[in-house]
Each structure stands twice: as structure tokens, then as C-alpha cells.
Amino acid sequence: MAHTERTIAVPPDQVFAVLADGWTYADWVVGTTHIRDVDADWPAPGAKIHHKVGPWPVSLHDETVVLKADPPDRLVLRPRIRPFGELTVVFRLAPSGRDGTRVVLEEDIAKGPLRWVRNKLNDLLMHGRNKETLRRLADIAEHRPARRTGDEHQDSAGMARHA
């Protein structure tokens, strides 16, 4: 199993908001190249993201399914890259400091031929991939505009200001 951690400089609800936006999945998941569709109830258990994995022209059409969702603390996914196999990916989010989030990402091969290559080298490769995934997730979460609360108005430049 590959275990990767990173502290992101926004609260857990802001990190989870990125995880909950299925259309951003290809922006932060290394190896996913295109989102074809996202179920309307993503990230509810059973909801799917339909995506392409790998470079053209050998990219595969497949999906990622939500196994469990406990916003803003935990998300468990089952990415499928058939015929090679399926993974189990767990995101655990916890407050860190005043406004940060400690994200723990654990990934393991759940089923399929990829299980035959499960070893320390494979875990190291997955860890490197997941380190980049968390870096991308942090970039999006830290630079995405915060949600408006309803007591804000936009000025002429489109910037939010409190009423």
C-alpha cells in the first residue's frame, strides 16, 4: 500500500470541495487525462466519474466509483483501469493548525492483474504519483476562490466584498 501525506493551507471543507467537484478530477489525479461525465450525485456512495486514463492513442475509457463519503473528513474511491485492475483510494482529511488540512492518501491495488506486481517498488512508484496528485490538489484548493456566503457582494471588478 502506498501512503502519502501533505498539509494544504486551507480548511478541510475547502479541500473536500475540490474532491467533491468531479469535473476537476483530471486536473489533480495523475494519469487521468479526460473527464467524459460525472454523475449528478457525486460524491455520494455509488456515484461515478467516467474518465479516460493514459496517453492517446492508448487511453482507456473507465470510471471511478465512490465507496464511502464522510464530508469533509473522508472519501473512499474505487478507480478502475480495466483490464489491468481496480484500486482502492482513501483520502483522510484532518484540521492542521489554524486554517490548514492534513491530507492522508492511501492507495492499494484491490483486484485484477496489477495485484501480481504488488511489491515495494510498485508502492514507491504509487507514492511518487500520489505525491504529485496531492501537490496538484493543494494548488487547486489553495487558489480556488472561497464560496460566497450570501452576505457578500461583488464589486465592479468581480471581487467579493462583505456588505
How would you summarize what this structure contains?
This protein is an alpha+beta fold and 163 residues long. It contains three helices and nine strands; from the N terminus they run βααββββββαββ. Helix 1 crosses helix 3.
What can you tell me about this protein's structure?
This protein is α+β, with helices and mostly antiparallel strands. The protein has a single domain, classed as Alpha-D-Glucose-1,6-Bisphosphate, Chain A, domain 4 (2-Layer Sandwich), CATH 3.30.530.20. Helices cover 22% and strands 42% of the residues. The chain has three helices and nine strands, in the order E-H-H-E-E-E-E-E-E-H-E-E. Strands 1-7-6-5-4-3-2 form a seven-stranded antiparallel beta sheet. Helix 1 packs across helix 3. The longest helix is centred in the C-terminal third of the chain and has 24 residues. The termini are far apart. The C terminus is likely disordered.
Summary tags:
single chain, 163 residues, Alpha-D-Glucose-1,6-Bisphosphate, Chain A, domain 4, seven-stranded antiparallel beta sheet, two-stranded antiparallel sheet, 3 helices, globular
